[in-house]
Amino acid sequence: MPRGDKSSYTDKQKRQAEHIEEGYEDRGLGKEEAERRAWATVNKETGGGKKSGSGRGKGENHAPSRKGGRLGGAAAASRNSAERSASARKGAATRKRNAAAK
What we know:
By secondary structure, the protein is an all-alpha fold. It is built from 5 helices and no strands. The N and C termini lie far apart (47 Å).
């Protein structure tokens, strides 16, 4: 089976990837990047392509789907540019101090 072959995925996984991809495209990502991220999310949730048979299934972990909506800019969006700059300077100083301590 060549890389990228989706034949081992269930219909449900294919629908999930399609739906996730649409969400990424709505947020402004390109078609190829949205598709790549969608399949990465499905793989993370379901453990990759599923094969039929009793007792072969594992539970799904939906944390990767929930994670995407929560992350991203909430703290930074509520602060002005001076506060963001001060925070960036403070972080840079901390990283520099920690690097020197090693």
